Amino acid sequence: MAKEKKKLVVIIPMPGIFLLDIAGPCDVFMMADSVLGENPGAGSGKTGYELLLASPVDTKKIKTKSGIAIDCAVRAAEIRRSIDTLIIAGFSRMQLKSGHPFFQWLKQIYPKVRRIGSICIGTYALAEAGILDDKQATTHWEFSQEFQLRYPKVKVDTNPLYTKDCNVYTSGGVASGIDLSLALVEEDYGRDIALKTARKLVLPLRRPGYQSQFSTLLQVHRLENSIAGKLHPWLIRHLAEELSIGHLAEYSNMSVRNFARVFQKETGLTPAKFVEKLRVEIARKYLEDSDLAMDQIAVKCGLGSFVSMRRTFLRHMMVSPSDYRRSFRTSLHSVAATC
Questions:
Q1: Which CATH number fits the domain that encloses residue 180?
Q2: CB 172 within 8 A of CB 161
Q3: Are residues 202 and 229 in the same domain?
Q4: Residue 66 lies in a domain
Q5: pLDDT digits (tens, 9 = 90+) for 62-76
Q6: What are 247-288's pLDDT values in tens digits?
Q7: Residues 20 and 98 grouped into a single domain
Q8: Rounded to 5, what percent of the chain is helix, strand, coil?
C-alpha cells in the first residue's frame, strides 16, 4: 500500500508583513509534523504536513516589517501541485491594489483547495478575491470598520480570535495566526496531537477571551474636534460622579435635546454609552498599572461596586476584571512584585 502523502500547506507571505504572521503558523505546522512522527499511528494514521512558501508577486524575496527577508520557494502562480491548505499571511494594501493578478489567481485556486484561510488583515486579500462574500469573517480589530465599509458583503465579527465558515478560515491579530494553526491541526489530527504540539511550543491550545480584550473601546483621538473630544478631559476628572446627560449638556452649554442629537451624530454613540465605555477604558488602565483593589477601581471609575463593574466589564470586554488584570498587568511590575 502506497504511503499517503503529507498535506501540502501553502503559506503566502505578503510584502511588508510582520515576521510572526508567517513564523508562528510555520512553527505550529512543523511541530505538529514532528509530533506525528514521534507518535506513529496517531491522528488516524495520517502523515503530517509539508510547508511551501509562495510569493504573491513577481519576486520570490519578500521583505517583512522587521527588515528580515523571506525567500519563497516559488511564485504562487507557478504552483502545480494539489494544495490542501492555503493561508494568506498579512496583507499589503500599498503594493497589492484592486486588479492585481494575485487576486484572480486566488479566485481560481479557491475551488481546488480543501480549505483556505487568512492571518490578520490577510482577510483583505480573501475579500478582494470575492471569497468572503456572504461569509462570516474576522480581522484585526483596528481595521474592522474600514474593512466592513470596503467589503459590505462580508459578515464581519472582530470578537473571535478566529472564525470558520464552510472551508474558509480567518484570524484576528498577528498572534491569532498561531491560534488558528493549532485549531487546524486539531481539526486534522485531533485534540491530543494539537495539545502535544502546543505544549512543545509552550503555548495554550486555546487562549481565553476575545479580541475585544485587546481593542480600544474609544478612539478619542478621532473625536478631537467633537463635543466628546472637548468633554473628554473633564469627564476623566469626574468619572466617580454622576454623569447624566443633563450634567454633560449643562457643562457644554447646550440644551439636553440638542446635546444628545449632536453627540450621537458626531460619535455614533449615545452620551450614556460613551461614558460607560470611557469608564471601562480607565478601569483597564488601573487594572494594568496599579495595585488598587477591585472595589477601589470600581468607585474611582464610577462603575459602582465590584459586582456591577464585573458585569459591565464582561459586557464590553468579554473577560472579567480579574482575568484581564492577570493577562495585561504591566509585566515588569509583576516581576518586581515577586522579588
A1: 3.40.50.880
A2: yes
A3: no
A4: yes
A5: 999 888 999 999 999
A6: 999 989 999 999 999 988 888 889 999 899 889 888 888 888
A7: yes
A8: 50, 15, 35
